[in-house]
C-alpha cells in the first residue's frame, strides 16, 4: 500500500479509536503532535513514515487511554498488518510508542532518532499555551483546584498527594511542565521548547501578580 494512503487511513482509524476520549489524549492532541512531528522529523532528517505512524498511534496503547493495553497492542498490530506494513517497520513503530511515555520519568532516553523526534513532539504539546490549557483541563477533571498558596511547589509529587487533594494545577507546572524543556532530545525540539517555556514563565509571573493583587 502506498505510504501516503497508509498515513491517511491511519489518521481516520485513530480518530475513530479516540472518539469520546476525555483524558487529554483526544484526537486533536494527536493531530498537534503529528504536525509537530512532521516539522521536527524534516529538520532532523528522521524517517518520515516511521515518525508519522508513531505519532499517530502513540496514545492508543497508553494505559491512561485504555485499561487493556495488551489488547490495544494486538489490535494495533492487526491494523498495521491490514495496512501491509512490513514487520520490520511495525517493530520500529511499536518500539517508539512503547518507550516515549513520560510517566515514571526515569525511563532512559530513547535511542533511535525517530523515537527522539516523536517524544519531543509529544512533550511540546504539554508546554506553552496549549500545555497550560491541557494542564487546567486535566486538573479540573481530576477535581484539583487551580492554586493553593499553602501548597509549596514541589518537584516530586505522588499519586497519594493528589488523592489527598494536595495537588493543584499550578503545582503541576513544577512537577512536570517546567522540566520538559531540558528533556528535549533534538535541537529543533529544543528551539520550540524554549519559546514555549518562556511563555509559561511569563504566564506564571502574571498569575502570581494577579493572585497577590499586584496587577
Ligand atoms: P502524556 O501526554 O505524556 O501522556 P499525561 O497523561 O500525564 O501525559 O498528561 C496529559 C496532559 O495532562 C498533559 O498535558 C499533562 O501535563 C496534563 N497533566 C497530567 N497530570 C496532571 C496533573 N496532575 N495536573 C494537571 N495537569 C496534568
Ligand atoms: Ni501524547
UniProtKB/TrEMBL annotation:
InterPro entries: HD/PDEase_dom, HD_domain
Domain of life: Bacteria
CDD domains: HDc
Domain named HD/PDEase: residues: 22-136
The entry's keywords: Hydrolase
Gene3D superfamilies, per database record: 1.20.58.1910, HD-domain/PDEase-like
One Pfam entry name: HD
One example GO MF annotation: hydrolase activity
Residue ranges crossing the lipid bilayer per the database entry: none
Record-given protein name: Phosphohydrolase
Annotated source species: Halalkalibacillus sediminis
Amino acid at each position: 500500500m502506498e505510504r501516503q494512503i497508509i498515513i491517511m487511513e491511519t489518521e481516520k482509524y485513530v480518530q475513530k479509536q479516540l472518539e469520546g476520549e476525555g483524558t487529554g489524549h483526544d484526537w486533536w492532541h494527536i493531530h498537534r503532535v503529528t504536525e509537530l512531528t512532521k516539522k521536527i522529523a524534516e529538520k532532523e532528517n528522521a524517517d518520515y513514515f516511521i515518525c508519522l505512524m508513531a505519532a499517530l498511534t502513540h496514545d492508543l496503547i497508553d494505559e491512561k487511554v485504555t485499561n487493556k493495553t495488551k489488547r490495544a497492542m494486538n489490535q494495533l498490530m492487526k491494523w498495521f498488518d491490514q495496512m501491509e506494513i512490513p514487520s520490520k517497520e511495525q517493530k520500529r513503530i511499536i518500539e517508539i510508542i512503547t518507550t516515549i511515555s513520560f510517566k515514571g520519568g526515569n525511563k532512559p532516553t530513547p535511542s533511535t532518532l525517530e523515537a527522539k523526534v516523536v517524544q519531543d513532539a509529544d512533550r511540546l504539546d504539554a508546554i506553552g499555551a496549549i500545555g497550560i490549557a491541557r494542564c487546567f483541563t486535566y486538573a479540573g477533571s481530576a477535581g484539583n483546584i487551580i492554586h493553593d498558596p499553602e501548597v509549596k511547589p514541589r518537584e516530586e509529587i505522588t499519586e497519594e498527594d493528589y488523592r489527598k487533594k494536595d495537588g493543584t494545577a499550578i503545582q503541576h507546572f513544577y512537577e512536570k511542565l517546567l522540566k520538559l524543556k531540558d528533556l528535549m532530545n533534538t535541537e529543533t525540539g529544543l528551539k520550540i521548547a524554549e519559546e514555549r517555556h518562556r511563555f509559561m514563565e511569563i504566564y506564571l509571573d502574571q498569575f502570581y501578580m494577579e493572585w497577590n493583587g499586584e496587577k
